Amino acid sequence: MSSYVVTSEERAGDMASPVAIGRAVFQWGPHGVDVKHVDHSQVPSVPKPLMVVTPTDAGVYPVAVFLHGCSMYNSWYESILSHVASHGFVAVAPQLGGIIPPLNMKDSKDINTTRQVTSWLADKQQGLAHVLTNIIHLHGVRPDLSRLALAGHSRGGDTAFAVALGLGSSSDTATATAPASPLKFSALIGVDPVAGLSKQLQLEPKVLTFTPRSLDPGMPALVIGTGLGPKHVGLSPCAPAGVNHAEFYDECAPTRYHVVVRDYGHLDMLDDDGVPYVIKNCMCKRNTEDTKDLARRDIGGAMVAFLRAKLEDHDEDLRAVLENSPGLSPAVFDLVEYDLA
After folding, report:
1. Whole-number Cα distances in Å, 181 to 107, 266, 312
2. What is the 3-state secondary structure (H, E, C) of the chain?
3. Tens-place pLDDT, residues 143-164
4. Annotated catalytic residue within 86, 154, 325, 329
5. 74-133 residue pLDDT tens
6. Catalytic: which of 158, 266, 268, 317?
7. Which residue from 113, 28, 100 is spatially nearest to 296, judged by alpha carbons?
8. 243 touches 196 (CB < 8 A)
9. Is 57 within 8 Å of 34 (Cβ atoms)?
């Protein structure tokens, strides 16, 4: 087993010495980015409306499917997904549900939708390649679906784990209609994932087992947490202890990575514009210093470093992030740990 933990208290070294390669992932990447929303009126076969965020320079790029959080819109993640796309990845973010859905502790519908979207990506007539060429009109941009990642925030992070783990019984009518996908995910990311309201009130099907290293998604996993997510704002916290990022990492089988952005909250990675005031400021404990861009750059940079390592076999940036040198990231990673066994 190869396992290591770096805390903020343990970090030491020359402030001028962070690896330049690692630092670059926290800045805007070398590619221009285009964002398009695609629905049935443009592509009849698409299972759900999508936000596609893509580099504009000609090339062949890995793909990441990103699942939004509960009562969120996919468009609220445009900034962070644009950061990822600027480093050479195509992000596909389906809209799984509306902003004010009925309280539903069953996740089967979102699991099914994610599988449908994944299958649709490879559709030779109307899939992702068609969208990039004929809808977004980027004729030199091609998706490499052999290099595919699955990511999600909050409830979407739990859904991503459920899909990766193959949860959702074939006897369940909500999941039985999902076609078998010709594609295989190679990397998994949970951005402040949340499995439910408490240990006793998990989403169904239940992802967490409360047994260390019991979850084997069959691929490397990065779990990103926020330091303020478990804290209260009058009612229940948005990322309650026991069902948040710490438990996901503890239960994930190696190869696994865990980083925590210390001074930011559960929704601080959302866009500055377009998100209702009550969601940005009243639902979850948040950073009050108007520096959400630093959180987006931290989380986006960690995602880029992980995706480069796992989809492109370039691990220099990930190694730099794991070293967690002072001054490397724009916000503070309070905790970095990994287990490669």
Report:
1. 19, 32, 22
2. CCEEEEECCCCCCCCCCCCHHHHHCCCCCCCCEEEEEECCCCCCCCCCCEEEEEECCCEEEEEEEEECCCCCCHHHHHHHHHHHHCCCCEEEEECCCCCCCCCCCECHHHHHHHHHHHHHHCCCCCCHHHHHHHHCCCCCEEEEEEEEEEEEECHHHHHHHHHHCCCCCCCCCCCCCCCCCCCCCCEEEEECCCCECCCCCECECCCCCCCCCCECCCCCEEEEEECCCCCCCCCCCCCCCCCCHHHHHHHECCCEEEEEECCCCCCCCCCCCCCCHHHHHCCCCCCCCCCHHHHHHHHHHHHHHHHHHHHCCCCHHHHHHHHCCCCCCCCCEEEEEEECC
3. 999 999 999 999 999 999 999 9
4. 154
5. 999 999 999 999 999 999 999 997 665 556 778 999 999 999 999 999 999 999 999 999
6. 266
7. 28
8. yes
9. no
Least confident span in 96-100, 201-205, 315-319:
96-100
Query: Is 108 assigned a catalytic role?
Result: no
| Catalytic (active site) residue 317 | no
At 195, list the tokens. 């499995």
Rounded Cα distance between 147 and 137, Å, is 22
Tell me which residue of 217, 229, 191 sits closest to 91, measured CA to CA: 191
Starting at the earlier edge strand, list the strands of the sheet with 59-67.
Answer: 3-7, 333-339, 256-261, 221-226, 187-191, 141-153, 59-67, 90-94, 50-55, 33-38
Q: Of residues 107, 158, 192, 317, which has the active-site annotation?
A: 192
How far is Cα of residue 220 from the mean position of the Cα atoms in its chain?
13
